């Protein structure tokens, strides 16, 4: 069968087809990014009546602020916790569903559902379950003799936001892990089993190396998710508290920009956050990808 190809007679029609997407990208992504970079070099009053060029003063003030440095460490702990918990649980679920012959589509649908829930809604759900007064999970924890109060204890609050943020992202990871597991030929498992390799050895010598491209991709995605897309979860559960114990970089940018009306500092924080995420992504592609087997 001959391949059919569409050839445009001019440049204007392809440009017209691309125009809506280009307009959305420019208006909602490029223009706000340019404005954020510009605003980071200015100091504005809270009412927006004037602004004054201050150069790098907003950036130097950030790194001289103990609160901002604490938020960097909080973000590191939070992102590592979310990424590790998400990858571990989603891979376990994918491995369990992959072994099920009948009804695996039902389990797959049930595990994918949480991804459709908005981050703020997910945060409210977990806030109710971990609430020290009425939460069923908080009650169960105290029944085991373990103290729990995420309203007063910063460590408890960090556990809450990590669990709430990871719960929603597990579904996304599960889809990719399940697809990766199902693409591994069964003959490889059978050959290893005949050679006497147990389930654990087969996992680390066959499954994990073949899943390394998927694992690398999900590590990058999960870190970006923890840095950028968890604002709704934190705002609905702890609001950065208690005592800024769960104030990540993205939430501190919101607090300084929308609550304190310090637009210059908030814009500078957004620029720094973007640079950090880009640098982490480049480092992962530069060093971690070497261990990936394609």
UniProtKB/TrEMBL annotation:
The keyword Transmembrane applies. It holds the Pfam family BPD_transp_1. One of its GO terms (biological process) is transmembrane transport. InterPro entries: MetI-like, MetI-like_sf, UgpAE/MalFG_permease. Residues 72-284 form the ABC transmembrane type-1 domain. One of its GO terms (cellular component) is plasma membrane. Keywords: Cell inner membrane, Cell membrane, Membrane, Transmembrane, Transmembrane helix, Transport. It is found in: Cell inner membrane; Cell membrane. SUPFAM superfamilies: MetI-like. The keyword Lipoprotein does not apply. The chain crosses the membrane at residues 12-34, 72-94, 106-129, 157-181, 202-228, 267-288. Coiled coil: none annotated. It is a multi-pass membrane protein. Part of the ABC transporter complex UgpBAEC involved in sn-glycerol-3-phosphate (G3P) import. Probably responsible for the translocation of the substrate across the membrane. The complex is composed of two ATP-binding proteins (UgpC), two transmembrane proteins (UgpA and UgpE) and a solute-binding protein (UgpB). Belongs to the binding-protein-dependent transport system permease family. This is sn-glycerol-3-phosphate transport system permease protein UgpA. It comes from Jiella flava. The lineage of its organism: Bacteria, Pseudomonadati, Pseudomonadota, Alphaproteobacteria, Hyphomicrobiales.
């Amino acid at each position: 069968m001959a391949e059919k190809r569409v050839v445009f007679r001019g440049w204007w029609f392809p440009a017209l087809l691309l125009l809506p997407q280009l307009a959305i990208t420019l208006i909602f992504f490029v223009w706000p990014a340019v404005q954020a970079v510009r605003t980071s070099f200015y100091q504005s009053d809270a009412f927006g009546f004037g602004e004054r060029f201050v150069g790098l003063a907003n950036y130097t003030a950030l790194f001289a602020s103990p609160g901002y440095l604490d938020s960097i460490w909080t973000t590191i702990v939070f992102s590592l916790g979310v990424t590790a918990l998400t990858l571990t649980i989603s891979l376990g679920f994918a491995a369990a569903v992959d072994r099920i012959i009948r009804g695996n589509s039902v389990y797959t649908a049930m595990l994918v559902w949480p991804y459709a829930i908005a981050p703020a809604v997910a945060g409210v759900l977990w806030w109710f379950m971990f609430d020290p007064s009425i939460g069923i999970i908080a009650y169960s924890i105290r029944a085991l003799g373990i103290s729990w109060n995420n309203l007063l204890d910063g460590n408890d609050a960090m556990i809450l936001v990590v669990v709430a943020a990871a719960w929603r992202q597990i579904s996304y990871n599960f889809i990719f892990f399940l697809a990766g597991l199902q693409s591994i030929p069964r003959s490889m498992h059978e050959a290893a089993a005949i050679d006497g390799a147990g389930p654990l050895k087969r996992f680390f010598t066959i499954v994990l190396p073949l899943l390394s491209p998927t694992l690398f991709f999900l590590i990058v995605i999960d870190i970006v998710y923890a840095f950028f897309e968890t604002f709704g979860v934190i705002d609905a559960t702890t609001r950065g508290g208690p005592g800024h114990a769960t104030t990540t970089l993205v939430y501190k940018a919101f607090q300084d920009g929308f609550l304190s009306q310090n637009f210059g500092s908030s814009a500078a924080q957004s620029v720094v956050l973007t640079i950090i995420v880009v640098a982490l992504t480049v480092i992962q592609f530069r060093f971690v990808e070497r261990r990936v087997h394609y």
